[in-house]
Each structure stands twice: as structure tokens, then as C-alpha cells.
Specification:
The protein is an alpha/beta fold. The chain is 42% helix and 12% strand.
Length: 322
């Protein structure tokens, strides 16, 4: 344990996540005499001995419940809402999410601080790559990173990749490589590729480890990110840091993260995605400029900045100057 860091013995609680949140965490916080309790993922203890700072990454489940048709989703949403409204202060990843949280829960924007995420140095384009591409992946390819979920709008790029292959007259490339857990969309995307006459155009990898992910970023022609809703969009930042050109939706938080370092595209304009894909494949100079712009922009997103903003939020809750 680092010098100057103290710990308390974990108090008894029911051996479940709710048991820890309801009983164990408040008792541990009281025993440790904490001044601020930071709940880092959407939910806060029902009772806390100290003011709660709550992190909410996005409120897609509240703004678009049709994307989350789970039996117990209403209970989860109610608990999230109560946690947000009862917290002394809220942290979130983007100005977009701040506006969405304020609208969803009726919270004054002044109670919400934007603390943009950082990017791990392991994604730097200057770091040697220990990983290798999976056997099913051959270059050149386009990459999407993230769960295969309805909100990710991946059908638009499956169609665009198929159309770009025809426009470029390149036969069997590029493929679209999907790295992420399938949340129920994978089979439909495969069927769409078959309907487009290019069943080999979609390669599903599932979840990958960090070394493989770094190799995928480094080898891809570009990251394609057509999502309709993101609180931040960490793959956009990781791709930029890796020197990978980015084609992203101009919806939600993506413009905040990408800025002018890549292409922002209408998520509902398939022809624009085809045009962007053809351009980035065909123009070496464009890819080089996007690579340089992305690396420069990603350098501003550091975990040190995130930590400093978070610490200032703690101080504000305690009435102390930053």
C-alpha cells in the first residue's frame, strides 16, 4: 500500500452487489470517516455518511428506453434517477451528457461537472505493438470497436462497405471488422452483408484483449463509428491516439471528442458514409493528415486532466477553493 494511504476492514454485508451498496459501503465509509464518497458508476448508496459525488457516463437508458427492453429496466432506471437527484454533485464525460442528464432528471447544469476521459499511453502510435492480428483478419480493413448494440447504428456501415467495394471495384476488400461483445445485433449484421452480396464483408471477433485491440487500431484503414448516442465514445479517442483515421457520426458527443481531426458524418446518410469510406481508402495524403491531426488532438485528453477536474469537484462539494 502506498505511504500515507489508510484502509479499513471491510464490514460485514450480504455477499451481493446490492448488499455491498446498501450495507457494506456506507458502513465502510463511516468507519473510514470519509469526507466525500465518490460513486463512480450511476448508482449511489441509499444512505451515506458523507456527500456523494456521482459519475454518470450517459443517460441513453433514460432518453431511449426502447433500446433496453429488459424485464427489470424500469427498476434500474428509477434507481439511477434517484441516485442522480440525491447526489451532492454529478460528474460526466461530455457537455452533451451534461445537457442530457439535466434534461432527463431535472438537475441544474451547475450541479454537473464535465470531466472528459483520458486515453491510456499504451494506445500511443509510438509504443511498440506486442499483439498480432487474429487469423480471420487480413488487411486492408475498416474497424469498429464497441458492443454490437442497436444504438451503434452499424447497419449503415455494413451497407456502405458493400457499396464502397463495388465503387472501388476491389473485389473482396475492405472488410468491416467488429471488435466487441454482441448484444443481439451480430446475426442481423451478418444477414445484411449476405443480402448485399458480400457475406465475407463482416468479420465478428467478439471481445478482444488490449494487445489485440492495439494491433487492430494500428492496422486498420480507419475506425468507423456511426453511433447515434454516446456519452463520450472512447474508441474514437483510442483510435486517434493510435494514429488511426476516424469516420464518426456527428451525433451526440462524437463532435466534442473528434473535433476537426476526422470526418463527421450524418448517421442517417448512407451515401455520405460510402463517399467517406471511398475517400479515406483512395487518398494516402488524406489518411496521413487525419493520422497527424488525430494524434495531436488525442494528446489533450489525459487522465491527469480528468483527475484534476474530479478533485476540484470534491473540493467544491466541501466548499473549498479549487
Amino acid at each position: 500500500m502506498p505511504p500515507g494511504v489508510e484502509h479499513v476492514i471491510e464490514p460485514w454485508h450480504l455477499p451481493t452487489s446490492p448488499g455491498w451498496v446498501v450495507f457494506g459501503l456506507p458502513r465502510a465509509a463511516a468507519r473510514a470517516r470519509v469526507q466525500v464518497l465518490h460513486a463512480p458508476a450511476y448508482t449511489a448508496p441509499p444512505f451515506s455518511p458523507a456527500p456523494v459525488v456521482l459519475t454518470i457516463h450517459d443517460v441513453s437508458y433514460e432518453r431511449h428506453p426502447e433500446w433496453y427492453p429488459y424485464r427489470r429496466d424500469g427498476v434500474r432506471r428509477a434507481y439511477y434517477r434517484w441516485s442522480a437527484r440525491s447526489a451532492a454533485h454529478v460528474l460526466t464525460d461530455s457537455a452533451f451528457s451534461r445537457s442530457e442528464i439535466a434534461a432527463a432528471y431535472g438537475i441544474a447544469p451547475a450541479r454537473i461537472t464535465v470531466a472528459p476521459l483520458g486515453v491510456s499511453p499504451t494506445f500511443s502510435s509510438r509504443v511498440e505493438l506486442p499483439g498480432v492480428l487474429p487469423a480471420s483478419v487480413t488487411t486492408p480493413f475498416l474497424l469498429h470497436v464497441g458492443d454490437l448494440h442497436e444504438r451503434r447504428n452499424l447497419g449503415v456501415v455494413v451497407k456502405a462497405v458493400s457499396a464502397a467495394r463495388r465503387a472501388l471495384d476491389r473485389g473482396s476488400w475492405p472488410a468491416l471488422v467488429l471488435a466487441g461483445v454482441d448484444r443481439g445485433e451480430g446475426d442481423a449484421l451478418g444477414a445484411l452483408a449476405r443480402a448485399e452480396g458480400a457475406p465475407e464483408a463482416v468479420i465478428r471477433l467478439g471481445a478482444v484483449d488490449e494487445d489485440t485491440l492495439r494491433a487492430l487500431y494500428a492496422s486498420a484503414i480507419a475506425l468507423v463509428y456511426p453511433s447515434r448516442y454516446e456519452g463520450f465514445g472512447l474508441p474514437v479517442l483510442e483510435a486517434m491516439a493510435s494514429g488511426t483515421p476516424v469516420l464518426a457520426s456527428h451525433a451526440a458527443s462524437m463532435p466534442e471528442v473528434l473535433g476537426e481531426a476526422g470526418m463527421l458524418i450524418d448517421p442517417d446518410a448512407p451515401a455520405d458514409w460510402v463517399e467517406a469510406i471511398v475517400r479515406v481508402i483512395s487518398d494516402d495524403s488524406l489518411r496521413g493528415q487525419m493520422r497527424a491531426d488525430g494524434i495531436a488532438r488525442a494528446a489533450a485528453f489525459t487522465w491527469a486532466r480528468t483527475a484534476a477536474i474530479t478533485l476540484n469537484a470534491y473540493r467544491a462539494v466541501l466548499g473549498r477553493p479549487a
